[in-house]
Amino acid sequence: MKICRYRTGAGEPVRVGLVRGEHVHDVTAVTDTLPDVRWPYPPGDQFIAHLDRLRPLMEDLADRTPGLPLGAVLLANPVANPGKFVCGAGNFEEVLAAGGHPRRLGLLFKMTSAAAGSSDGVTLRWPERTTFHEMEIAIVIGRTGTEIPAACALDHVAGYCIGLDMTMQGPEFPSFGKSFDSYGVMGPWLTTRDEIADPDALAFRLAVNGEDRQVDSTRRLVLGIADLVEHAASVMTLHPGDVIFSGTPPRSVGPVVPGDVMDAWMEGLGAMRVQVVAGPGRKTPLDGMEPAALTS
């Protein structure tokens, strides 16, 4: 099953869709069956938490709903309320060969306000600085758990998306550079786990302005999908809608500038086009401060 969130036009409300072929079928009505919640709200995305129950309802509704061409809608981030973004670090073979290991390096984090869909594009708020693309598989958690062993980790996965873990380069803490609005692109939709026989064997490609930047496979991850879930759950509780970005091979990260167009494709997960636009530039009090003032 391929589940998306979409708008029929700029400024229109976000709807829930079931993707079949080249069409999306409006199944928003299934959200009316979600339980009412009151403060203190339960952790996690409630749609993802109840996905197993919603699936047959969505299939039935899609059978009775005319489809819209995918090209006629604007795709939003498929996870409405991610609780946290966890980013794999040093999780490719070349980092291991250089003496690093993702279990030693730990994990990085991105604020969930960075979440964006393919139609939102990426805004370089500080275009005078360098931002790198990092394409990877995004693992969407479907069931609460902690201290999850790898042997049953996939039971806690709802599905997968293409992820663009955009990262501004510089002296700031890495999680700061990952957390600008729109720097957590996911899409084009959520592909449920049952659709992907082996998430550790997916080819992927990222092109910028038609030029290949990343051509790789999830086969080269040091920690595969189950091991990544185990790694994250060894230090934190995972909730439905939490997202783990797998990590990117250092050899294939690269800069983007305003006006660039990124085309991302991953086997089994689809393809999405993402525009890069300029933001206003840095407007914080740091601008214009003398170097001496920065150390006082």
Automatic annotation (TrEMBL):
InterPro entries: Fumarylacetoacetase-like_C, Fumarylacetoacetase_C_sf. One of its GO terms (molecular function) is hydrolase activity. Residues 101-277 form the Fumarylacetoacetase-like C-terminal domain. Gene3D superfamilies: Fumarylacetoacetase-like, C-terminal domain. Pfam families: FAA_hydrolase. Keywords: Hydrolase, Metal-binding. This is Fumarylacetoacetate hydrolase family protein. It comes from Novosphingobium soli. The lineage of its organism: Bacteria, Pseudomonadati, Pseudomonadota, Alphaproteobacteria, Sphingomonadales.
